[in-house]
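Researcher: Quick test of sequence recovery. Tokens follow.
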């Protein structure tokens, strides 16, 4: 790579460091549309998972054993 190409790449990098939004302008993309699409996809994923019980929930019995504490029994009346 010649010094001229290196200088151009350095200049482009410096401009992108100052204003990262230029990357999207160069690619002819609208940041708002990308964010909207990401939110829609994440919302759809969360809604699809909403009926399932998460594997990350720890039962009270497991908590008691894990931390060595006694859990109060819930009244089911």
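Model:
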């Amino acid at each position: 790579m010649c010094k001229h190409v290196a200088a151009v790449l350095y200049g482009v990098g410096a401009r992108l460091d100052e204003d990262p939004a230029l990357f999207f302008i160069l690619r002819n993309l609208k940041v708002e549309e990308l964010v909207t699409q990401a939110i829609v996809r994440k919302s759809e994923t969360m809604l699809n998972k909403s009926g399932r019980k998460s594997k990350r929930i720890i039962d009270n019995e497991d908590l008691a054993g894990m931390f060595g504490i006694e859990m109060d029994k819930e009244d089911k009346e």
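The chain has one domain: 3-67.
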